Target: RluA family pseudouridine synthase
Amino acid sequence: MNRPNLWSEGREILFEDNHLLVINKPAGILVQGDATGDEPLSKKAAEYLRFKYKKPGEAFVGVCHRIDRPVSGIVILAKTSKALSRLNEMFRDDKIHKTYWALTGKPPVPETGTLIHWLVKDTVRNVTKAYPTAHGQGLRSELKYELLGPAGNRYLLQVNPVTGRPHQIRTQLATGLNTPIVGDVKYGFIAPLPDVSIALHARQLELQHPVTKEAMTFTAPLPDAPHWDTAREYSK
Model:
């Protein structure tokens, strides 16, 4: 399959060098394979590289972090084992600065702040619960947020997770601020979006290149989806 016709530079392919492949993931695609058997981003990337460089065998693609299936935005994939091991360490040590944009149905109160919860993942139901104080096996989770402004009848929040936990932004906004993300019925929004995505976008990543040590910032354009139209003015 002609993967380069599906992924274009500047839109899906944000950056590529010998060690990194940075992709603006569309909502609805898994980053890594699971029990569904659906083709994940990692497999699509391997096929893209194999086709582009006319590789006779499998291309190396290492997954060092994930964003949820219904979430869009930046995913960094490693093209070498050296980059993969160093990226894994950087994500584990919270040395990569992550910025997300989220649309909510009402403004947060207060408009800026820090949320700290202890998150417990129910792997059977694939849902995370947030507790305000230390709880059992709960993992301490922290994020910073600010209201960027109204976006039509929605509100655009900028979120910077300090830690990286499963469903962290989704459950912390819903529990800590009572502002579930638009379309996220799993965490309390009233109705799904037509494309069953949620209005959460991994907007920007700032990091030191794992091999060259160069300071890098990647920014992902918003999806071509109607629910993001009123937020586009903030990306100019």
